[in-house]
Write a structure and sequence with these properties.
With about 120 residues, this protein is of the alpha+beta class. It contains two helices and three strands, in the order ααβββ. The N and C termini lie far apart (about 135 Å).
């Protein structure tokens, strides 16, 4: 019974001493400072495969990636056109008239031609 208690005590002490450190003592990419393993078995431990993924270094594109290129474009420039000048008010000289032919007894364009001069008549 004493041997079982002694072995249990040694396992507990070894577990406490070789336990991974807390999050406060982690460094770098979140890896612990000390990595431990417990092997319980008979005979020598032989590893026949490739190293586990945590032994491989990070891929080169993740470590040596160039910094991103930031291009700052100039803000757009807006040119406001000046409004066109207002149209001039119609003058009295530009007043329209009707043209009357006394011999044809009608107004232009009803009477296309007149043998005497046309008379200017103010529109009604």
């Amino acid at each position: 019974m004493k041997k079982v208690a002694l072995v249990s005590l040694l396992v507990v002490v070894a577990t406490l001493l070789l336990a991974p450190p807390s999050d406060a003592s982690r460094r770098g990419r979140g890896r612990p400072v000390v990595q431990t393993r417990v092997f319980i078995g008979v005979g020598p431990a032989v590893w026949w495969g490739p190293y586990p993924y945590w032994y491989y270094p990070p891929p080169p594109y993740a470590v040596y990636a160039p910094p991103p290129v930031i291009v700052q474009e100039a803000p757009p420039v807006y040119i406001q056109q000046t409004p066109p000048p207002p149209a001039p008010a119609p003058s009295a000289a530009a007043e329209q008239f009707w043209y009357y032919c006394p011999s044809g007894k009608g107004y232009y364009p009803t009477v296309p031609s007149c043998s005497e001069p046309w008379l200017k008549v103010a529109p009604r």
